[in-house]
From TrEMBL:
NCBIfam families: HTH_metalloreg. PANTHER family: ARSENICAL RESISTANCE OPERON REPRESSOR ARSR-RELATED (PTHR43132). Residues 1-95 form the HTH arsR-type domain. It comes from the Bacteria. The keyword ATP-binding does not apply. CDD domains: HTH_ARSR (cd00090). InterPro entries: ArsR-like_HTH (IPR011991), HTH_ArsR_DNA-bd_dom (IPR001845), Metal_resp_trans_reg (IPR051011), WH-like_DNA-bd_sf (IPR036388), WH_DNA-bd_sf (IPR036390). One of its GO terms (molecular function) is DNA-binding transcription factor activity. It comes from Ancylobacter aquaticus. Coiled coil: none annotated. This is ArsR family transcriptional regulator. The keyword DNA-binding applies.
Length: 108
């Protein structure tokens, strides 16, 4: 994962509707949800949902798979885990993480 890719993924999740869609798909697990079921849960127009799903698919956060006439949407967990890992990989790298939280300086 590189900075540009992480920024694109975070930008796509920065929209409240897309974040809600994504969280709904994450909650659905590996089976995912058909577009109609997702639309029902989110309560938005099909065209709006399609627009937001395209953005999530384009950034690799969501996958879609067609089964006959049904389009199944799934959170792409490897991408999600890579993004979370990218954000946390260097946690406290400059601070050494040796300092107890109780002694950390207060944020004004």
């Amino acid at each position: 994962m590189n900075l540009e890719q992480a920024a694109r993924q975070l930008e796509s999740l920065g929209n409240p509707t897309r974040l809600r869609i994504y969280r709904t798909l994450v909650r659905a697990g590996h089976f995912g949800l058909p577009v109609g079921g997702l639309q029902e849960r989110i309560g938005i127009a099909a065209s709006t949902l399609s627009h937001h799903l395209k953005r999530l698919v384009d950034t690799g956060l969501v996958t879609q798979e067609r089964h006959a006439t049904t389009l199944i949407c799934r959170a792409h967990y490897p991408t999600m885990n890579a993004l979370i890992g990218y954000l946390a990989d260097e946690c406290c790298a400059d601070a050494g993480c040796a300092e107890p939280a109780a002694q950390a300086p207060a944020v004004p």
